[in-house]
Amino acid sequence: MLLAIDCGNTNTVFSIWDGTSFLCTLRTSTHHARTADAYFTWYSTLVKHYGIDADITDVIISSTVPRVVFNLRVFADRFFGCRPLVVGKPDCLLPHAPRVDEGTQVGPDRLVNTAGAFDRHGGDLIVVDFGTATTFDVVSQDGAYIGGVIAPGVNLSLEALHMAAAALPHVDISVPQQVVGTNTVACIQSGIFWGYVGLVREICTRIKAERDRPMTVVATGGLAPLFQQSADLFDVMEEDLTMHGLTVIHKYNKDIG
């Protein structure tokens, strides 16, 4: 079985893939000082709790936090006896090489989302990922990542507003009842929610105009359903897009190996 690991700036997600479906998905906070032993203690406890008997033979890792990769490599080698594939490293090949400026390093998460989205929906895509940053990945007709946009994430913007303005409280994002708020919390929620609706809609419109062709907008990330229910911004929503992309890249490397 395959253990797919997606390490983001905020959370790290482990999913067990049996070749046809994900048996479980486990989530923990990202911490660069967490040791291989600590990962295994957390992992094995939860797997046992869910009653899953998983014989892990392969591991693939995508990480936007370079400092955690070493301990995840040790985790894979020590407890599963395998050398993990790490997206972005030379020995991890991609189904379609990115076409960007020479010397540019594309984030592993964006490469993985590109692979997963193209596998499910074909080319000419805009993949919107609501993570620590809100990213827009443009996927060409042939499946290559050809560039994109990076904006501050929703929760990051809320936290920055709270930290920079002492009088403003920290609030949770939600759909406002009306645009004009009548109290401080409602004002912030409206500004963040409708501000991001406008940001997503405008960026996607401009990408489509620049590409001058029809494009499918695919959304992923925990906040995608919140925005979709009130603004109808996306053509497709994919909860497990990143994990699916990891299985696609792993299979590609196995097939050509």
Automatic annotation (TrEMBL):
Q: Pfam families attached here? A: Pan_kinase
Q: Which reaction does it catalyse?
A: (R)-pantothenate + ATP = (R)-4'-phosphopantothenate + ADP + H(+)
Molecular function, one GO term: pantothenate kinase activity
Per UniProt, the cofactor note for this protein states:
A monovalent cation. Ammonium or potassium.
Q: Which amino acids does the record list as binding ATP?
A: 6-13, 132
Cofactor(s) this protein cannot do without: NH4(+); K(+)
Protein keywords:
ATP-binding, Coenzyme A biosynthesis, Cytoplasm, Kinase, Metal-binding, Nucleotide-binding, Potassium, Transferase
According to its UniProt record, the EC number is 2.7.1.33
Tell me the residue numbers annotated for binding substrate.
107-110, 184
Instruction: From the UniProt record, give the pathway where this protein acts.
Output: Cofactor biosynthesis; coenzyme A biosynthesis; CoA from (R)-pantothenate: step 1/5
Q: Where does K(+) bind?
A: 129
Q: Where is the active site?
A: 109
What is this protein's function? Catalyzes the phosphorylation of pantothenate (Pan), the first step in CoA biosynthesis.
What HAMAP family does the database record attribute to this sequence? Pantothen_kinase_3 (MF_01274)
Q: Which family does it belong to?
A: Belongs to the type III pantothenate kinase family.
Describe its partners and assembly state.
Homodimer.
The name this protein goes by in its record: Type III pantothenate kinase
Q: Which gene encodes it?
A: coaX
